[in-house]
Design a protein that fits this description.
The protein is an all-alpha fold. About 65% of the residues lie in helices and about 0% in strands. It has helices spanning about 5-20, 25-45, 50-60, 60-75, 95, 100-110, 115-125, 145-150, 160-175, 180-190, 190-195, 205-220.
């Protein structure tokens, strides 16, 4: 008899034991494995089946396929504990273009890149030539005076625009002790208005802006 089959059976038993804390997955394995084993033992009919028939069965590709399927069923789902550092958000080609610049700015100013991404998403939807009716320009919609204060020489340059916007976000976060919602409100309406009203200003645009950007940030 080919012992590889029994070795695979033993391997499955070991795997089953190692995955016992995952109750639902363990139960699924138990049912699948029991069904598989019963079917194969019934087919083998050890003691009455010829050794040639047993060998043919052990070499049957369909058995290997079933074993592979069982192995695949044991793969753990991706969770926050074993996932990579990649974002949950599915990025478009246009968004992906600017990810290196976002990552660089996030590292430079010690920001979460998802926060920069979320601001750009709602400010310009990743259009580097965007311009608002008020004159805010570029990916992070910097006002000309703000851009000059941040030493942004070319407001349409994606690298300079993202760097300047990230620097401004960092300043607002520091000003409001890390409160992201207040920082976003200041980014949209100016810190003077946040200070004046003691929180998110009662402007319709700002009242809509803050939760939209914040929710995108939480789900990115």
């Amino acid at each position: 008899m080919d012992l590889s089959f029994l070795q695979k059976i033993n391997g499955f038993s070991s795997l089953q034991t190692s995955y016992q804390p995952l109750s639902q997955q363990s139960a699924m394995f138990q049912n699948m494995f029991s069904s598989f084993l019963q079917e194969q033992m019934s087919t083998l009919q050890l003691g009455t089946t010829s050794s040639e028939r047993r060998m043919d069965l052990f070499l049957d590709p369909s058995i290997k396929q079933r074993i592979d399927a069982l192995q695949d069923s044991l793969k753990l789902p991706v969770t926050s504990s074993n996932a990579s550092s990649s974002w949950h958000t599915a990025l478009s080609d246009r968004e992906s273009r600017f990810q290196p610049l976002i990552q660089a700015a996030a590292k430079k100013y010690n920001l979460d890149p998802k926060l920069i991404y979320s601001v750009i998403k709602h400010e310009s939807n990743f259009n580097p030539t965007a311009r608002s009716h008020a004159g805010a320009t570029g990916l992070m919609q910097l006002m000309p005076a703000t851009a000059r204060s941040l030493n942004v020489q070319n407001i349409f340059d994606p690298q300079q625009n993202i760097d300047g916007g990230a620097k401004y976000l960092k300043q607002m976060l520091e000003r409001y002790n890390g409160d992201i919602k207040l920082a976003l409100a200041a980014y949209n309406a100016g810190p003077g208005n946040v200070d004046k009203y003691g929180g998110i200003p009662p402007f319709k645009e700002t009242q809509n802006y803050v939760p939209k950007v914040y929710n995108t940030y939480l789900n990115a």
